[in-house]
Amino acid sequence: MEYISILSEHERLAEDILTNKQLIIDYDRTRNTNREALNILKKEPLKSQKKVWVNLGEFFIKLEKDNVKSYIEKDQTNLEKEISSLRDTIKQKTTELEKSETGEISKMKGFELQGISASDLYNITGVNKEFDE
């Protein structure tokens, strides 16, 4: 009976990981579509227009261009946060899955590494790229 519960826990973790990966793909597609929309709003023919047509679900609505642009930018930041959160969750669940399968996390030690930020790099090297140009 204990063996079945262990296998079901492994299956649940693996299913969560796959679901989160698919959500990241879906959110990334939406983010790319938003980026395309922002680029189209910046193009020359639309610069003179004050209102643009927007597809909101099943409706086409004519809205102020500035409102549409700010809405898309807010959506982009929300998608970035959600994707980042999902990636962190995937890392955590993958580590959890390996730990439950093998009892250790030897293969996943470097999996939780994070990139260095620009300010940390500046603090380490003492070189500011803006002033070197």
Automatic annotation (TrEMBL):
The keyword Cytoplasm applies. One of its GO terms (molecular function) is unfolded protein binding. Pfam families: Prefoldin_2 (PF01920). It is found in: Cytoplasm. This is p53 and DNA damage-regulated protein 1. Component of the PAQosome complex which is responsible for the biogenesis of several protein complexes and which consists of R2TP complex members RUVBL1, RUVBL2, RPAP3 and PIH1D1, URI complex members PFDN2, PFDN6, PDRG1, UXT and URI1 as well as ASDURF, POLR2E and DNAAF10/WDR92. Gene3D superfamilies: 1.10.287.370. SUPFAM superfamilies: Prefoldin (SSF46579). May play a role in chaperone-mediated protein folding. It comes from Funneliformis mosseae (Endomycorrhizal fungus). Its main location: cytoplasm. Keywords: Chaperone, Cytoplasm. The keyword Chaperone applies. One of its GO terms (biological process) is protein folding.
